[in-house]
């Protein structure tokens, strides 16, 4: 479903609940489950409600302190995510990550119709940040392909977090990426760099 109708069906104007319903139904069928309509509706409602809440998500303990520290330093914080509208309006606030205290603006693929690694999503972020130049931005992500490369391709500074000690991190470093273990290290790195972004 995500390949056929990316960005949660944005281009086709598929209602969010219909996109999710089709995705969930397809997943069950592929797994060998073909529920009758009544059973499927009950199961789907629980899944849809769960993924529209903070229940299946957790934030890393360094996230909120880091975001607040960056904003306190006078920097604008944006979130660029391949997520649907509920992420902005419901999930992040339920996790304690609020617009205005932890972040200033968000660019969410389900609301924009473009998703990472397409560099256009980063160009939208530049506009939302006040039409700033890419070289004034530091993008922090965890995917070389979806975060680092597209951000660098439009002229942003970028670094990667490797919280889980992935095997790929060494290749990221060999490719020239700054790779840090967490946001505590990112804060130390920014202090050492004198917050030049």
UniProtKB/TrEMBL annotation:
Domain of life (superkingdom): Eukaryota
A Pfam family annotated for this UniProt entry: Hydrolase
Name of the protein described by the UniProt record: Haloacid dehalogenase-like hydrolase domain-containing protein 3
